[in-house]
Amino acid sequence: MLRLGYPVIGVADIDRAVAFWTSALDLAATSEWASPDWRTLHHVDGSGRALCLMRSGSPAEARPRIHLDLLVDTTAEQQAEVERLVGLGASRVDWDSYPPEPDFVVLADPDGNLFCVVDLSRAPSGSAGR
């Protein structure tokens, strides 16, 4: 039976990506399938895999067709998490496709991979342009 796996993010620097994503999402790197080109991140509560990182030689896409949405419950939490993530090494993205009152903020991880921080109290914003 076919099953959906876990999101895999292509990165140039595995160690830097592990540091960012484990701090950003309170995950833990494991030795499962670990290699210089691959790292599996698990939930710290032991509930299983959450995210995988794979070394990639290609650059991050400016408009990726698939990206991560990180969810928060309030606008205040969204603002606080955006600041925390920027402090961990994410960068703000000058996104030219925001709807009039967006419920999401576009950021890039240290490798330039885009992701969104979505405020569920204001969702959906009309995310067709994302």
From TrEMBL:
<dbReference type="Pfam" id="PF18029">
    <property type="entry name" value="Glyoxalase_6"/>
</dbReference>
<dbReference type="GO" id="GO:0016829">
    <property type="term" value="F:lyase activity"/>
</dbReference>
<keyword id="KW-0456">Lyase</keyword>
<dbReference type="InterPro" id="IPR041581">
    <property type="entry name" value="Glyoxalase_6"/>
</dbReference>
<keyword id="KW-0560">Oxidoreductase</keyword>
<dbReference type="GO" id="GO:0051213">
    <property type="term" value="F:dioxygenase activity"/>
</dbReference>
<dbReference type="InterPro" id="IPR037523">
    <property type="entry name" value="VOC_core"/>
</dbReference>
<keyword id="KW-0223">Dioxygenase</keyword>
<protein>
    <submittedName>
        <fullName>Catechol 2,3-dioxygenase-like lactoylglutathione lyase family enzyme</fullName>
    </submittedName>
</protein>
<feature type="domain" description="VOC">
    <location>
        <begin position="3"/>
        <end position="120"/>
    </location>
</feature>
<dbReference type="InterPro" id="IPR029068">
    <property type="entry name" value="Glyas_Bleomycin-R_OHBP_Dase"/>
</dbReference>
